[in-house]
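Bit of a strange request maybe. I'm writing a small parser for structure token strings and I need a real example to test against, not something I typed by hand. Could someone generate the tokens for this chain?
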Amino acid sequence: MYLAILSEVDWSGLDQATADRQNERAGQKARILAALGVSGSQLPRVDDEMVRRYYRYLSKHLVIPFEACYPGPVNPDEESLHRCTVVELLDPAEHADLGFSGLHCRVRRQTLEVILPLIDLQVPEAHPSFQKIEDFWYWFWNWR
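Reply from user aminoacidic:
Good idea to test on real output. This should exercise your parser:
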């Protein structure tokens, strides 16, 4: 049996992965600050005004309609059961009755239309709106 000594282990891959993750988070933070129209280095807390700002940004930049899955398939066989088409991002000022669960959207599944929280949807990574929705999700869940 061979026991590695810590000095024999190549840790450079871990350092690179950590640096990549820090760069990714810095880029995400900059995108969120820009989306909210906020200067500075700290992400603002989630509140009604910031959610409205994010809505204005997303309503101009999301490519709608788009395909998504809800609430997230557990396995590949379920994916087709949860597919929907997002047809509209709802203005939070006009839909305050939906409660404070972020932004909502109108989705269509065959002939059924329902309203779902945007954060509950999974968008394919290849879609042009993926990063914008992912950034919103990250901010909404981590700065409440």
